[in-house]
UniProtKB/TrEMBL annotation:
Cell compartment(s), UniProt: Cell membrane
Database matches in Pfam families: ABC_tran
Bilayer disposition of the protein: Multi-pass membrane protein
Biological source species: Lacticaseibacillus hegangensis
SUPFAM superfamilies reported for this sequence: ABC transporter transmembrane region, P-loop containing nucleoside triphosphate hydrolases
Name this protein carries in UniProt: ABC transporter ATP-binding protein
Chief location bin: membrane
TM helices/strands, residue ranges: 20-45, 57-77, 138-160, 172-193, 271-289
Superkingdom, taxonomy of origin: Bacteria
Length: 620
């Protein structure tokens, strides 16, 4: 067991060096300073009463006051130093958590077990308060127990040895009687601790699930301000609250029973202490009544003995909470060490100024875990250098999945994808992903400055940021912001931040892709949030946006395909047609249907008919 405790101490120490030392100094001073101050005050009093000459008295007084000032200041400094260390510890844990969440591969990130492990780790962290107190509490409780043992021994010595008229009240029989009461107390306390440990564990386990649910309601559902509008429009009757209450009530039913038992154990512990005090009173009281001890000693001795039992009970029940903290630390360490399936590839990606990178899909299929059908099925495709390829198809046809396979966010279930002849899985992942600048359909901006959002770096090339914003058609909007490119987006991290519209945000995401200057540019519905003029402008700048890169874009706006030299049409995970706009329009197939269905909205006749229908309805 001890070996295990040391493992946890070591973990705490590796998270934040010096914390154990600071904790130890603080604990020692916390225990010693009150005793030291009391002793010094005692000496001071003696000096005042015994010293007759004024000069040595003043010197003695000055020395005592100085000593008291020094030890109390030391104590204060150590308390502050420990407090700082605990903050540092908490920050480092948060850093490690964030680093793990951002460093694992996408597969692991989406892995159910990994997410469950994270939920357990974060609940444990929240539930136990923090891990560093684990060491501190063991230390404090041990010191308290040590002091209580010494104090009790000092007081008990004269009581045990005092001669009484009845022989059993002297020597070993009396000691044995004291030990018997203490032993019964320790035994019962230990039993209570074991029970309460079990209930603590149950309570902790139940709480992990409950915290997880409540987190969803409080942090994910009701707090993000993009959710505000949905809740106000679609939840006027507060069904969210009712839903949460239901979940809370179900959780309460589960927790209240175990909570009640846990507390019953604690109160039983208090009652036990009262009983033990009674036992001590009886035993020592009898000895006092026999005339062997002054009555005042009874109160003193029982006080010290009860204090000893209290320290013992605290030491043991702290052990119960320690177990919970150990489990929380185990969960956290498991999360940190969660085996990732790191990208295996190590081949460096050749740096080519001419951007001659050719990617080929060889009979690639992919199925999401648990799904019954392939999301991408037997796709063979060649991305020619400098080509502009559009991918079109109905919702759910597999377009985004195809892009994720290309980006190595997903790994093919079968088939291979090659870059310049080598399987892309064999390349160093970070270098490989640097080949792509992507604007995802659900792009994310961060609550950092515009410049950092565009450059994705804390040291942006400011001139290039402006160029990127110009290409994306959002430079004027940024110029009007209070701190221009240094303005934070959203007020999540900076109260002077600004909120941009959906379309403006999308333009900033496009600027980010341009800034990256990667050989491949991938745009998944890049203009979905843009107004027709902005969309027109983006396509006007399309040459500037794409330059000589290989461009792949997905769009439901069929008119956007005119910028593509090749169009791949997807249906049910397969590429069902491939060719230029003219070639595909000449074929009787899905492309022509999609194109005509959209174009039909814009024919003169259609607009006239719709308008007439609207007017008729209005006249009624
Ligand atoms: N994370 C996922 N887990 C399970 N199935 C998924 C997941 N993501 C997508 N799918 C399924 O894979 C299929 C293809 O989805 P994909 O997002 O690639 O389609 P898409 O053509 O990009 O659609 P859209 O035009 O609506 O964006 C869909 O049937 C979808 O339900």
């Amino acid at each position: 067991m001890m070996k295990k405790s040391f493992d946890y101490f070591r973990f705490i120490q590796t998270v934040s060096p010096w914390i154990l030392l600071r904790s130890t100094v603080n604990a020692l001073l916390s225990t010693a300073v009150p005793l030291l101050v009391a002793t010094l005050l005692g000496w001071l009093l003696n000096a005042v009463t015994q010293q007759t000459a004024l000069r040595p008295l003043i010197i003695q007084l000055a020395v005592f006051i100085l000593l008291i000032a020094v030890v109390t200041s030391l104590h204060l400094a150590s308390a502050v130093s420990y407090e700082v260390a605990t903050r540092d510890f908490e920050n480092r844990i948060n850093e490690r958590t964030t680093a793990k969440l951002t460093d694992v591969s996408n597969e692991t990130f989406n892995d159910r077990d990994f997410r469950a492990q994270y939920a357990a780790a974060s609940s444990g962290w929240m539930y136990t308060g923090s891990f560093h107190s684990y060491f501190n509490e063991i230390l404090m409780n041990s010191l308290n127990l040590g002091v209580a043992v010494i104090a009790a021994a000092v007081v008990l010595g004269p009581i045990v040895t005092a001669k009484a008229t009845q022989p059993w009240l002297t020597g070993w029989p009396f000691v044995l009687a004291l030990v018997a009461i203490t032993a019964v107390g320790i035994g019962l306390s230990y039993w209570l601790v074991l029970r309460s440990q079990r209930y603590q564990k149950q309570f902790y386990d139940v709480n992990i699930g409950v915290n997880d649910q409540m987190n969803y309601y409080l942090n994910d559902l009701t707090w993000p301000y993009e959710n505000g509008k949905h809740l106000r429009i679609y939840d006027p009757e507060d069904r969210t609250v009712a839903h949460m209450r239901q979940a809370q009530e179900a959780a309460n039913t589960k927790t209240s029973q175990v909570f009640f038992r846990m507390h019953a154990m604690m109160h039983a512990g208090d009652a036990l202490l009262v009983l033990l005090s009674g036992g001590f009173y009886l035993l020592i009281g009898i000895k006092a009544l026999s005339g062997a001890l002054p009555v005042g000693m009874v109160v003193l001795a029982v006080g010290y003995l009860t204090q000893l039992m209290r320290a013992l009970a605290a030491f043991m029940s702290q052990r119960a909470f320690q177990k919970t903290t150990e489990q929380a630390m185990d969960d956290y360490i498991k999360f940190l060490n969660y085996p990732d399936q790191p990208a295996t590839g190590s081949i460096p990606v050749e740096k080519r100024q001419d951007h001659k990178f050719e990617i080929v899909f060889h009979d690639v299929s992919f199925r999401y875990p648990g799904d019954k059908q392939d999301a991408v099925s037997h796709v063979s495709l060649r991305f020619k250098v400098g080509e502009r390829l559009a991918i079109v198809g109905r919702n759910g046809s597999g377009k985004t999945t195809l892009i994720k396979l290309l980006l190595r966010i997903l790994t093919p279930t079968s088939g291979t994808i090659t870059l310049n002849g080598f399987d892309i899985q064999k390349y160093n992942l970070a270098e490989y992903q640097q080949l792509f600048a992507t604007v995802f359909q659900d792009f994310q901006l961060f609550a950092f400055s515009v410049a950092e959002n565009v450059a994705v770096s804390p040291h942006p090339d400011r001139e290039r940021v402006w160029q990127a914003l110009t290409v994306a058609g959002v430079a004027d909007r940024v110029k009007a912001m209070p701190k221009q490119i240094d303005t934070a987006l959203t007020r999540n991290l900076d109260s002077g931040g600004v909120d941009v519209s959906g379309g403006e945000a999308q333009k900033i995401a496009i600027a980010r892709a341009w800034y990256k200057d990667a050989p491949f540019i991938i745009l998944d519905e890049p203009t979905a949030a843009l107004d027709p003029i902005s969309e027109y402008e983006i396509y006007q700048h399309f040459d500037q946006l794409v330059e000589d890169k290989t461009a792949i874009y997905i769009s439901h706006r069929m008119s956007a395909t005119r910028f593509a030299s090749q169009i791949a049409v997807m249906a049910a995970g397969q590429i069902v047609q491939m060719g230029s706009h003219e070639q595909l329009m000449a074929q009787d197939g899905l492309y022509r249907d999609l194109f005509n269905a959209q174009a039909a909205y814009y024919t003169e006749d259609k607009i006239k008919a719709e308008r007439a229908k609207g007017e008729a309805a209005f006249n009624i």
